[in-house]
Amino acid sequence: MSLLEAMEQAGVGRLVFSSTCATYGEPQQTPIVETTRQEPINPYGWSKWCVERILRDYAAAHRGFSFAAPALFQRGRCAADARSARTTGRRRTWYRFSC
Fold this sequence. Notes:
It is built from 3 helices and 4 strands. It is α/β, with parallel strands linked by helices. The strands form 2 sheets. A two-stranded parallel ribbon has the order 1-3. The protein has a two-stranded parallel ribbon with strand order 2-4.
């Protein structure tokens, strides 16, 4: 809240928050899409989910504020078997925006 209050005092109305696919926990279906239910299963995922919720509520209460919360996904970590989990060192990034 201190950051949001300082942003408001400084006239800054936009924020990009780096979120994570951990907010989705272990989804029942893949690929994960914008409407997939967020059900974190660990403290890291819960902490990111809580901040997203705070930002959503803050944006609803403050007309001049908007934010984006890109959720980062690592392709190799989402795979079910070792063959498809191989990576080339590249990451695939999915963006979920909440503006």
